[in-house]
Write a structure and sequence with these properties.
Layout (H helix, E strand, L loop, with lengths): L2 H8 L10 E7 L1 E2 L11 E2 L6 H13 L3 H4 L3 E8 L7 H14 L2 E11 L6 H10 L3 E7 L3 H6 L6 H14 L3 E7 L6 H13 L4 E6 L7 H4 L8 H17 L3 E2 L4 E3 L6 H7 L3 E5 L4 E7 L5 E8 L3 H11 L3 E6 L5 H9 L6 E2 L1 H7 L4 H12 L9 E2 L3 H5 L1 H6 L3 H7 L3
Parallel strand pairs: 1-4, 1-11, 2-3, 4-5, 5-6, 6-7, 7-8
Antiparallel strand pairs: 8-10, 9-10, 12-13, 13-14, 15-16
The protein binds S-adenosylmethionine and iron/sulfur cluster.
Function: Probably acts as a heme chaperone, transferring heme to an unknown acceptor. Binds one molecule of heme per monomer, possibly covalently. Binds 1 [4Fe-4S] cluster. The cluster is coordinated with 3 cysteines and an exchangeable S-adenosyl-L-methionine.
Family: Belongs to the anaerobic coproporphyrinogen-III oxidase family. HemW subfamily.
Protein name: Heme chaperone HemW
């Protein structure tokens, strides 16, 4: 038992109930690699055996602890890479297989990420018939020029066709749009934001382009990237244009129409549980201990698709690492997620999800409220506008070393 578990018991903190369960499925292949992307994604090899990968994912999924497998899955997210490269048959087998291993709630949100260059309306229909009820389209831009600079496989007409097809097949869909792109001006971005907001999308994710280590853009950065000040103005512009069209910003990059927040991501951000299958996928599960405490277990799958397949086919699991998150590390993990939410979370959720009593961070919360980084309401843990601007500093205040020093232990 760790020090914090002992203190929790001594102070009679409630044994927490287990959080909602989600499932992340990772499809690691794309038509080709985009120059800005550092996701675990690879150019699909010729003659890829997709059914072999699907069957392996199902074996891998069955390898999660039995206690976790009894808890119904409330959301599923098929991410990548480019899961829209899957055939309808492969997706159907995957989702049927998931249901034979794990209970899935009747109203589960089931999202699939699609690249406009890989799917048409007929394919969207197949995906919907297989159980997908939410689509996330990687549009990035509605401009031929900027799509070209991003090395995308589709042009603006392809992006618009995909949005129209998504609107005919799905009631609920998201568009990913990137901003602060090479050569982009505020006026150009205004047009992008308006077009996204005027589409039938129910959810929009606006990501500021970041230059990630190890990518082609890191090796040869575009010379005409907007500077920091312009990028900040762009973020504000996006928020204003989307708000005028009825999209509320509820997370750093997430905007939703009423009732259309992404349930899957909300579960991550409220420190919920999620199991995972697929190369490089990570999961986190809370497991009750007989003494009334609980453990938080994290597992990561082999990132290389070849190693992932080999591990499953030889030992029945694709896990490369599995470890327990000590109580001391949970406050930071919790805040890393919860403080991304514009409205934050109820203060009581901290203890319910981490098993760490609120008093451990109470003084820190007070200090951050006094400095205007957290909202003053003691019933909530929520960033102010200023707090969102200095999000990393705010999150880092809950690192184990920072808390230990602060609490004078
Ligand atoms: C896994 S991809 C989405 C699905 C599909 N692979 C596609 O690109 O169409 C997730 C999203 O992350 C965003 N993204 C990826 N790399 C980024 C970067 N370096 N900076 C900002 N956003 C990025 C893109 O908007 C992308 O759509
Ligand atoms: S952005 Fe999407 S399509 Fe491009 S390489 Fe990354 S995962 Fe693949």
């Amino acid at each position: 038992m760790t020090t914090l578990d002992a203190r929790r018991k001594a102070h009679g903190a409630k044994a927490p109930s287990l959080p909602p369960m989600s499932l992340y499925l990772h499809w690691p292949w794309c038509v080709r690699k985009c120059p800005y992307c550092d996701f675990n994604s690879h150019r699909a090899p010729a003659g890829l055996d997709e059914m072999r990968y699907v069957e392996a994912m199902l074996v891998d999924l069955a390898a999660w602890p039995e206690a976790a497998k009894r808890r119904p899955i409330e959301t599923i997210f098929l991410g990548g890479g480019t899961p829209s490269l899957m055939s309808g048959e492969a997706l159907e087998r995957l989702l049927t297989g998931v249901r034979s291993i794990w209970p899935v709630t009747e109203n589960a949100e089931i999202t699939l990420e699609a690249n406009p260059g890989t799917a048409d309306e007929a394919k969207f229909e197949r995906f919907r018939a297989a159980g997908v009820n939410r689509l996330s389209l990687g549009i990035q831009s509605f401009s031929d020029e900027r799509l070209k600079r991003l090395g995308r496989i589709h042009d603006a007409a392809g992006a618009r066709r995909a949005v129209a097809a998504a609107a005919r097949v799905f009631e609920n869909f998201n568009l990913d749009v990137m901003f602060a792109l090479p050569g982009e001006t505020l006026e150009m971005l205004r047009g992008e934001a308006r077009e996204a907001a005027d589409s039938a999308a129910t959810h929009l994710s606006f990501y500021q382009l970041t230059i990630e280590e190890g990518t082609a853009f890191a090796k040869r950065p575009p010379s005409d990237l907007p500077d920091e000040d312009l990028a900040a103005d762009m973020g504000e512009l996006v928020e204003r244009v989307l708000a005028d069209a009825g999209f509320r910003r509820y997370e750093v990059s997430g905007y939703a129409k009423e009732g259309r927040r992404c349930r899957h991501n909300l579960n991550y951000w409220t420190y919920g549980d999620y199991v995972a299958a697929g190369a490089g996928a990570h999961g986190k599960v809370t497991l009750a201990n007989p003494d009334g405490t609980f453990s938080v277990r994290r597992e990561a799958r082999f990132a290389s698709p070849a190693k992932y397949l080999a591990a499953i086919e030889s030992c029945g699991s694709g896990a490369e690492t599995a470890f327990e998150v000590e109580s001391e590390a949970r406050p930071f993990e919790f805040m890393l997620n919860a403080l991304r939410l514009a409205e934050g979370v109820p203060a009581e959720l901290f203890e319910a999800r981490t098993g760490v009593p609120l008093f451990v961070i109470e003084l820190k919360l007070e200090e951050l409220r006094a400095s205007g980084l957290l909202v003053a309401d003691p019933a909530r843990i929520a960033p102010t506008e200023k707090g969102l601007l200095f999000l990393s500093d705010l999150q880092e205040a809950f690192l184990p070393e920072a808390l230990a020093e602060f609490n004078g232990r």
